[in-house]
Amino acid sequence: MKIETRAIHAGRRIDPATGAVTPPIHLSTTFERSPSGEYPLGFSYSREDNPNRRALEQCLAEVEGGTQALVFSSGLAVAAALVQGLEPGDHILAPEDVYWGLRKVIGEVFGKWGLATTYGDMTDLAALRAAVQENTRLIWVETPSNPLMKITDLAAVAALAREAAPKAITVCDGTFATPVLQRPLDCGIDMVCHSTTKYISGHSDVVGGVLIRRHDNYLFERARRAQHYGGAVPSPFDCWLSLRGIDTLPYRVRAHSENALRVARYLQGHKSVERVHYPGLEDHPGHAIAARQMEAFGGMLSFQVRGGRDEAMGVAARCRLFIRATSLGGAHSLIEHRASVEGPQTKTPQNLLRVSVGLEHPDDLIADLEQALQQLAPQYLAAG
Ligand SMILES: Cc1ncc(COP(=O)(O)O)c(C=O)c1O
User: Which residues contact 35 (CB under 8 A, 6 or more apart)?
Assistant: First the structure.
């Protein structure tokens, strides 16, 4: 079945008690045993499993093309469960521009775990190969990356890992692309994770995360234990909201992608814009790989205005339709000065703004950027 159909039907069934088409929310924390002490319907206690969570996990596994999924209370709870599954002394390879929260998980939450981590450029396969160590157990990729929208060749990384680091598990954070645009498991990657907070839930009203496996592996099983006994589980209502969001995921993601391409082309031609980072633009260094590995190029982009931090902040301040807020993947368009969020150690250029292109009409979005950019100081307007 095609993804549009799986997005609506996978994990769902007509409620046998009422005939309800939309699933009920099961708030019960506990489930009845039979007189013989069994749990005939398979549920005992809601931290370990509950009907809404099971439906969401089945749906996400099918939509991603994996064999099983585990949902967590946030995207970072997935990362924490995976890192926690490593042994002290293990080595992690991760992208230098990885979502900054992963660095916090590795360095600050598991700082005492004795893990070694190399942050490198995942688009440079020779450097990646050279960074592999005998104790490398986790190879983390994120594509498109945040906020420079770098593209990693997933099939090449999976092949390299099989050959050079056979004991390592490869994990792709596919949050920006979603299963609609990119299928890392089909490229040979072992597991995919998403912050379901973003496109998957899609309405900026629930925080969550998912881990999906292609095949049985020990890190997935350890993550399952972390989910059951570590307790970072989503509530039944969170699961219900996410599942409701998935109904429209394929159509939303295509509309986000169309809007983003329009906005990116507009920005590319603007004299106050120094550079646009969007894999759908032909001059993006990862364009050829993205065109091969993605169905469309997604709703995220970033751009550098002429000038520095003040000019970038000024553009964001003048926006009327784009909302100055973090996160991504919802219906509203958002704009963010990323270096401010990432703090003093950031390598993100100070003149860069990251945009989550929403589902408004692209003409209105472009008009908003036009009025915000027109008021840049005259020396920058002249520079183009
Ligand atoms: C690419 C990526 N991965 C993971 C996360 C973390 O997800 P959450 O905020 O749901 O914990 C984020 C959050 O912004 C993200 O952008």
Answer: none
